[in-house]
User: Fold these one by one.
Assistant:
Number 1:
Amino acid sequence: MSAQARISNLKWLIASALVPLAGGCMTAKLDENRMTATHIEKGEAIVILAKPQVEGTGSEDEFMHCVGDRLASSADRFSVVTDEEFQDTLFPWFEPSVAPVRAENVAQLLERPKVSRRLAETGVRYIVWLDGNTRKTDGGGSLACGAAPGMAGCIGFGWWEKQSDYQATVWDLRSAKSAGSVSTSVTGTSAILGLMVPVPFVARVQNTACDRMAGQLRTFFKGGDPSVADTGSH
């Protein structure tokens, strides 16, 4: 067997062994804290907003929209008002710099006829304040790529770890109380293997966190029991 054939077979064997890791490796932790019963009636809607912070805003727009889309497209068909539409209708009372910091403050806000009327127009009963982010927590390895006349490629191995931590606090605008909270933490390790052609094994951490958060909120709004467990996927 020629040297080229042996190298080709070695590449095939390594790649075959890594196929089960093609989606990366992830673990997830879910939690729920319910304070009041929740139920959405016909004509009532949900809005997902970034929890105001001292500097800037909370969660990324991409993640908020992902969770909202998952809720709206689920079998339960929740009515979800976008954050842009809600804040435009209620401007300026729910802008990050002036938004109520506690659910109880909403009652005072709703005493204003103009605010109450505009809120009724949106149909929103529950506000979901979303807080968190996705960040790189670790990494290592070395990958070198080069080119020469008649050939090019990469050799080596690199890896990185990302963690998504998000918490959603739910306010019931009808009772002006906090209904509770749900949280999701997903950690994933991705890698790239240099076998002449770089072979990536990517853990889609934020996308998984979005799916888990949307699933928790569906259960929360239906009033069911949460699935609180550590789960892993490879």
Number 2:
Amino acid sequence: MARWIFLLFAASFSIGALAQAYPAKPVKIIVPAQPGGGLDLVGRTVADQLGRSLGQSVVVENLSGGGGIIATQTVARAAPDGYTLMVGYVATHGTNPAVRKVPYDAVRDFTPITMIGGTRNILVVHPSLLVADLKGFVDYVKKNAATLTYASGGMGTLNHLAMEQLKGDAGFDIPVAHYRGIGPAINDLRGGQTQMMMPGLAAALPHIRNGRMRPLAVTGLARHPLLPEVPTFEESGFKGYDAVQWYGIVGPARLPAEITRRLHAEISKALATPALQQRLASEAIDPMPMSPEQFGKFIQAEIARWGALARERKILLDD
């Protein structure tokens, strides 16, 4: 009995000592995308602020490929010591596990640390469509479905699923043109090859401001301050449209609780500063504060939500 008590004490002491000494070397944040864009911005912004608060170097490693699978597998297999973290986001920990078989478990293989924030989705149309609001849009699409196409940034992406949600709720059916990324999809919408899509607000905003896209409705429970004239889907008669392109920080499973709490506390303090909020706002990212436990439940709810929609709309990609 005395031996077991000693071992238990020793284990508790070693975990506490690890957390107290952490970090004793540079911390790495893996971004599952190439440099540039919202994912990279989040990773580098968090790395910069976290490095200052921890008094240790925090470096970013861009690891793209496989729709985030290479990065997620790398982090899932890393030692749970707090030195390998990742920007987990709606694709890696939401839509991908919901619509396709992935070689990782988005819940069991990771430790949720903190939510950063999210970018709303917005329904936009080519200016040639003579519609001014969501009701007029639905009426127009039902009458002209044979001549219309909507664009997506890829099968199973959030902008694809959000548009499929609208198709089901509004009762219209038009084909989708899938592109390899949101950039090419936006280019063809601007050129008139497709007529509508539901991208993230950050990606759409420049094109809305220069008149190349007309916004009709935005996700969320309140109008967005950057586009106060655009109503929400709920205002327009469609409930359940609160999807966002969200970003958070996760680590490997079994990350010590003391390290998880410290990382969460330091990142949360940084997120509360006006400077960091302003930087995220430049990408239309709204803060979404959550505890690690709340973030974990949020991830599970996202997978369940998009999985149900994917089954309903028959867009399970590995069937």
Number 3:
Amino acid sequence: MSDKPAIILASGGLDSTTCIAIAKHERFAPLYSMSFDYGQRHRHELSAAERISQHFGVREHRVITIDLRQFGHSALTDDIAVPKDRDERSMSANVPITYVPARNTIFLSFCLAWAEVLGASDIFIGVNALDYSGYPDCRPEYVAAYQRMANLATKGGVEGTLPVRIQTPLLHLTKRQIVELGHSLGVDYALTLSCYDPSDDGRACGHCDSCQLRRRGFAEAGVADPTRYVGVD
């Protein structure tokens, strides 16, 4: 067994699932995954994250419950409509209303605490700076700043015994390249869910920003899209 344990921030979506496949391919082991039940409208992603973790033989998958609806101000945690059918320019013009305030900072902090307990230096997160829909906490500057902070804030980081590395293998890839990479690693994307506004039975809407970026990625990669969309059998 490898002595390179790693934690993957697992949303159940295309990007985080590709990160799990990359970590496994690069022989990080054992693998751990963490998801969050934070009051999001698209809670079907939690079921996806669970089945994906099982599929990849993750040693332990944890679901952390926190209620970000207390703060709201996001279409994912508040009574605000999810934007639909926007073009690419509109998606990246401003920080979108689907941005959840400080979400990645909160999530990474939980991962950081667990990593220190597990003796894991590496935390994988599927952030993407090219097809990132304008989220401030998906930028290279953010990731670099968080890693610096993490190494100032943990016992292992300060003592130099457990340096923190925030692994972002998808950071500079397009959705097409991510799909191509995952496809080459044998990822079954039928297990995943990326939609911000799925139906009650877990079908993707096909029209939110996340769905549109995902659909475009599959189309440009020439890979069949296995997503279950509303209105499509």
